[in-house]
Structures
1.
Amino acid sequence: MPLHAEEYDVVIVGGGLAGLCAAATLANSDLRVVLYEKGPIEGGKAITEVDKDFQINIGHHGLLRKGPGASILKGLGLEIAAGLQKPGGYTVLDDRRRRLPVHMGSALFNGAFNASDRIAVYNALRRVRGDRTKDLMARSATEWVASVSTRPKVQRWLHAMLRWASYTNNPDELSAGLGVEQLQRLLRGGLLHVEQGWEGLTTALRGRARTGGVELRRKMGVASVSRAESGLDITLEKGTVVRSRFVVLAVDPTVAAGLVPSVDTASWAGPGVRVACFDVGLSELPDPPVSFGLALDGPYMFNVVSHYAGLAPPGGTLVSAVKYLGTAAANESTDRAELEAFLESLQRGWAAHMVTSRYLPEKTVTRSHYGPGSSRPDVEVSEMPGLYVAGDWVGPTGWLVDAALSSAHEAANQIRSQGR
C-alpha cells in the first residue's frame, strides 16, 4: 500500500480553462480541493503572449455572448471585461469585397449577390434562425446546405458561415446540428473578446478558485490515476502518491487516456480541428472600416481583434487571419502565402505597417468529436467511480470554449452534490 503524502476531497488535473472552471465552481464548497498544473502557469491553450505590447491569444479568439460559457461565468459572479463583436463585415470573392449578409435586411440589398441569390440568402437566413438543431444532429453540414439552397454562390456563403461559427472545414463530417447551433448563437449574440486576451479570463477564474480555498500547484505533473480501497490514488510524476475521493481530468483526451490505462478510452479523442493562424501587429490599419472579412472562395477569415478589446498599444492594431485546414495536410509556406494574400485583399499595403507577427502553421483547436450522430464522453466515467473528465471534448453542451466550461461546471456540480 503506497504512503500518501496528502489526502484531498477533489484533485483536478490540468489548469486550462476547464480545470480552472472546475476549481472556481468548487470554491467555497467545504471540500479540500487541489489543482495540479504541469506547466509553470495555468491557462493551457488559453494563453496570451505579449510581443511589443501586442497581446496575442494562442488559438480561438472569442466567447459567444449567447453561449453557455458566458452564462456559467456570470453565474460564478465573474465580471469579465470584454468587447462585443457584432455579426457583420465583408465577404471576399474573386479578390472583390462586399458586405457580408448576416440578417434578412442585409440579404435583400447585398451587392455580393444577384437578385435571385439575394432571395435565396434571405430564405437561408430564415432557415438558419428557425431550424431545430436537435433534428439536424445526424445530418452532415453538406446535406443541410444542399437542402437549404441549390444555388452555388449561396452554398459557398453558407459553408463559409459554418466555418466561421464552428472552426471546421470538413462539411461532409460536420454535424449540421452542431454547426447551425453555433451559427445561431453567433448571429443572435455576437462574440466577446476578452480584455488582456485569454489571460483576463484565466486570471479571473484563478482568483475565484484561490479566494475560495482551492490549492493551485504548478510544475506538478500527474503520472497516473488508479482505483484504491477508498477513493482514487493519484501518482505524481515525481513519485508522490496522493489520495482523493474525486478526480477531474481536465486535459487533452489523449493525455487523459494515458493517465487511466485501465479505463476504455478508445472513444474519447475525436478527429480534431486544425487551423493555421497568422496574427499581425500593425502600427496602423490601412483601411479602418474593414474590421472583419470572410472568404467565399477559400477557407479564410480575417478579424481586427483589437477593434473590440484593448489588445494593442496606443495607435496600434492587432489583426488575426485564419485558414481552416480541414483534413488536408498543412503546408507552412503555401498556407502562410495564402493568408498574406487574403490580408492584402482586405487591407492593401498592410505589410508596410507590420510591427510584429506570429504564425502558427498547424494549431489544433480541439480533439473533440463533431460528426453527424456522434457523441462526446460523459463527464462521469462509470468504469472508475469518482473519476470525471472535462474539456472541449466532453459532454453534450456547447462547442470549443463553451464545451470546456460547460463540462467542467457540470463535473464540479456533480461532485459538490455527492461530496456533502
2.
Amino acid sequence: MHSGAPFRFGDHKFAMRLAAFLLAATVLSATPLHAETAPVTAPAAAQPLSIERVFASPSLNGAVPRGVKLSPDGRWLTVLRSRADDRERYDLWGFDRKSGKWRMLVDSTALSSGKALSEAEKMQRERQRIGDLKGVVTYEWSADSQSVLVPLDGELFLVALDGSSRKLGGAGADLLNPRLSPKGGFVAFVRGQRLWAGKTGGEAAPISPEETAGTVHWGEAEFVAQEEMARITGYWWSPDDGHLAVERFDDAPVGVVTRAAIGAEGTRTFEQRYPAAGTPNSDVRLYVMKPDGSGRVEVDLGQDRDIYLARVDWAPDGKTLYVQRQNRAQTRLDMLAVDPASGASRVLFSEQAAPKSWINLTDNYRFLKDGSLIWWSERDGFGHLYRFDPRRYPESQWQQLTKGEWVVTGLAGVDEKAGRVYFTATRGDVLAQQVFALDLARPERIERLTDPAFTHSASMDKAGQTLLISRSGPSQPPQVYIADGKGKRLAWVEENRLDGAHPYAPFLAAHRAPTFGTIKAADGTELHWKMITPVMEPGKRYPVFFQHYGGPTSQTVTRGWGGGLEQAIVGRGYIFFEIDNRGSDNRGVEFASALYRAMGSVEVEDQKAGALFLKGLPYVDPDRIAVYGWSYGGYMTVKMLEADQGLYAAGIAGAPLTEWKLYDTHYTERYLGDPNKEPQFYAGSGALADVGRIKDPLLLVHGMADDNVVFENTSLLAARMQAQEVPFEMMLYPGYTHRVGGPKVGVHLWNTIFAFLDRAMPEGKDK
C-alpha cells in the first residue's frame, strides 16, 4: 500500500500521475507539434461500451505519453508511447524540432531479447506500480544529445539517433536502476546486490565491497523505501560526477516470510524479508565514495539506528549532501547537512508532527544555488511552501510563501533568475488542481496559469523556464502540452482530441458526464462526492455501483477524466458513485488525521453517510446498492458489511487487508502505532474479529502471488467466515500480484463481478 498509492483496481484517474514527467534544461520554442483543429462533433448514434472494449487496445484514454523529456541540446522532444496493438508495450518516440517530424527512436520489439525479468526487477516494478508495462519503461539522454540510455529486459543499451545500439554492462545482465552521471561521464547500475560503475561506453566494475552475507545490498532501496516512501533508488550522483552517495542495507534483522506465488502451472515459494508492523527494519547506512569506489566514508546518521533514510540530495554546488532522517514513529523529520569528505553531519532543521498526527514525506522541495531551500510543510495545518534561508531571515530562518485553507500538491519548478516558483494546488477548488506561480519578492501575489475547467499536474525543466502540463476534464481524456512561464501554451505534446480518429470517439455520444456535490459527516465536516447516472426514465429506480478507497493519502473525487470503466458500469444501468471520507488527501492535517489510531472507524461512518444520502434519492433503488473496493478499499468493503448489516445489498472486496499486523512497518505504524506498545488499536482496526456480523453477499478477489497485501489476508478471512458458517463467494487469480489486470484477465474479473451482482441483487429484489 504505497504511501499515497495503495490503489483501486480499474483506477483510470492516472492523468495526475504525469507529474513525474521531466524536462531537460533547454527551453522549447513555440514551434507547434500539431496543428490546431476544429471543435469535435460527437457521433450521431450512441455505441454501447463493453467491458471487452475497455481492456482492449488501443486504450480508450487515447495517446497518453509517459516519460516526456527534452534532449540537452533542445532539438528533440521525446516520449514513451504505447503501441496501438498492445496498450501495455511502450516504444520511445522523438519529435525532431529541426525537421518538424516525429519518428520512433527505439522499437522495443526490435531491441527486446524476450528474456524474462529477474525476480528483483519484477518486484521493483511492482513497487513502482508499473508491473504491467512492457518494452521501454524508462530512459535517459546522454550529455551530448546523440544517444539515449535504455534498460530493456534486464539489459542496458546505448542507442544512437541513427538507430544503432550498443549493449552496456557486460555479460549476465539482470541489472537494476541504471543511471548516467549528471555530466554524462559515467554510468552506474546494481547487479548481484553490488553497485557497479564505469565510464559511459566503457567497462563497468563493482565499486561497493564484496559482502559475505547474502542479506547485504549496495545501491538499492530497501523494501519499505520502495513500497511506502516512493524512493526507488539507493545511490545518488554528485553534480560534478565526482562522487556518489550510496545506501547499504542489511536485511538480517528483518523477519522472513514464506511467500507462495501460486501460478497456473505450479507454485513458487520465496523466502522474503518482510518487515511486518512491530518487527525490526533493515539496518540502513549511507556512504560517500568516488566513481571507482575509493575514498569511501560513512555518513553519520545519528546514534539511533532505528530510523528511516527518507531522502538524499546533493547541493547544487556538490559541496554538501542533504539527508532527510525520519524517526521510527514518523513524528519527526530531520534535515541533515553532511560534509561529503568526512561524513560528519549536523541537523539543519526539523519538522515535528502535529499532535495525534504524523509526518508526510514529500518530493516538493528544491535546493537553490544561493544556498536557500524551497520546502513543503504542513506546519500550519495545510501543506504549503516555505523558504528556508538563515542568512536572509536570521531570526526565524523561514519565510512562508503560500498560506490558506488549501493545499500545495506539487512543486513544479523554480526559475531562480526570475525569482519565480511554480506549483500545483487546490486553491479555489479542491477537486480541480491548477498550476500557479508566485514571485519570491512578493509571494502574496499568486498567479493562476491554467484553465479551471480542467484538473492539472505539472513539472518543469531544471532552469524553471518551461512548463510541462497535463490536464484532463470529466469529458476530456488527458492532454499534455508545453507552456512558458506565463502559462502560454507553446506546443502540444499530445493534444489527444476526441475527434473521429480517437479510440473513444465511437462511444462519445453515450458518454455521461459526472455531477458533484457535498454532504455532511457526523461531525459536520463537508465530504465531496461524484455521481454518474445512466439516461434515466421517469419514475424508475436504479442500482448503485458504490466505489470506494477510503485510506489515507488518496483523493478519488476530482474533476478529471474517469476513464472507460466507469462509463461501461453506467452503460450497464448502474449509477456510479464515490465519496471522499475523512482521512483522505488534500484537505489538510485535521481532515487526514481523523484516521490516527482509528482505521476502520470514521471512514466506514462517512461511507455510510454516502449510502444514506443515496437511499434518499428518488431515482436510487435503496435495496440495490453494491460496494466495491481494492486494497484498502477491499478492507473497507469488509468493515462496511460488518458495521451495517442490510445497508448494502452486496460487497466486493479486492485484495483486502484484514490483519494489520501482517502489513509493513512504515505504512502501518504511521497510523496505528507499534503493535507491541499499542495493541488495542490493531484489535479495533482489524477486519477478522467481526466476520460473524456479515449478513450480506460478499465476493472476495485476490491475486495469488500478491507480495503487497499477501494472500494470507484473504485466506485468514475465508477461514474465519467458514468457521462461523458465513457464506461468501471467492475468485482467485493464479500468478497475479496486487494488480489483477490486463486485456484478458481484466475482462474476466469484471464479468465475474457483474455476474455476482446479478445474483446478489437482481432487479426487483426486496430486502
